[in-house]
Description:
The chain is an alpha/beta fold and 313 residues long.
Amino acid sequence: xxxxxxxxxxxxxxxxxxxxxxxxxxxxxxxxxxxxxxxxxxxxxxxxxxxxxxxxxxxxxxxxxxxxxxxxxxxxxxxxxxxxxxxxxxxxxxxxxxxxxxxxxxxxxxxxxxxxxxxxxxxxxxxxxxxxxxxxxxxxxxxxxxxxxxxxxxxxxxxxxxxxxxxxxxxxxxxxxxxxxxxxxxxxxxxxxxxxxxxxxxxxxxxxxxxxxxxxxxxxxxxxxxxxxxxxxxxxxxxxxxxxxxxxxxxxxxxxxxxxxxxxxxxxxxxxxxxxxxxxxxxxxxxxxxxxxxxxxxxxxxxxxxxxxxxxx
Length: 313
């Protein structure tokens, strides 16, 4: 018996792998709309460095989960879960196919498997913790978190002030740790069935793609984008923690050369891609598009899979 769940497609994988391009191709062919699954594309003004869909691409095809917040605002996996699920339902109501595209594994897990909502944000607590970070750096607050929630502290890098603040805030507001909350039952997404496609190039090809993408971003005005952000937002905001943005901010602050900023952006992007692949490889229900010698064969394979998936409903 055919499933009554509504079909949805996900195109997942590491940075530089061509997810956005493939997602656009599939959405155009199968009457779909794009739902971004990227932790940085939700911020306005972060366009070149996040490879956000252009105005022309958005005029051709509806895109969701872009430009929702200012770079200085908070945005959590719980926020993503709520808003992206609303987008899926809106697309379904229009009888279109949701095509979720991105590389933020935590956000995709929140969307499909659920994510604890936790308490609301405490502005005064956050302001107090930000002052601690400004005076002594995030490592001081990370050490305090390690005393109350060693599991969360082990997962969160000592330099990631936003996640440290949120984890400590959850503990202070509720009296229970972030790790405890994350082990509680979550609300799994119902009513959709998924074709989850993962893009995996041979490593040397992926790294070449990443290096080329970084070079294109710098040639396309990346430095000016960061300069504009610097004029409106403090250095501790989300923009300047992201790969590429923090390197250019260092260059603009006179801490390194432009050549060093480019080289480190390439290197950190490759490291990030490796972490993404490691995370996605643990997902048994991903159908990997790998082994294709060129883009056209990869595209053809994805179209065949999508056509069979949609015909099976």
